[in-house]
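One record is set out below.
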Amino acid sequence: MKRASRIVAIVVVIAACVGLGAYLVMNRQPPPAPPPKPQVKAPAKEMRKVKVYQVAVESNEPKLRPTEKDVEAGKNPAEDSLLGLIEQGDASGLANPIPKGTRLLGFKVEKGLATVNLSREFRDNFSGGSEAEGLTIGAILRTLAQFPEIKRVQFLVEGKPLDTLGHLDLSGPQDVRWAGSQFGGNN
């Protein structure tokens, strides 16, 4: 009898274990999800406003007018504003004086001299007379004149000095204050 009661007890224990196992399998819950990680927002990029010049026609006279462009902190604001000038296109009654297709191939500033290396489209796609030349060069000089470290600009096309854009003598560095001349300096 002892032996029979032991067998019954073992069978009951085994049945209870099987039943408990089946119950746990049937009612298994997924483990709780870990708490969400706090969202860390990327800091807003610090921006700086620069001026980029376009041509506006006022009283039948073309004049250079500034538009504002945002430049990310850490970027070269002078180079970025020059890129903005070249790439801006025409909009809202303002025209881009830079010949279509022009690309900035290089830009550096040393001892007050900015060297601007432009693609051949700057020279080859230019159309217009002396007034258009003045507006084109004036837009570049005025755009770069806002940076105190730039006093003069040397123009290159495909790495070679640009002697002229038609009538204007560009064979040497141009003073950024030239932007105040009759062509580029109308406020």
About this structure: The radius of gyration is 36 Å. The first strand starts at residue 47 and ends at 58. The first helix runs from residue 2 to 26.
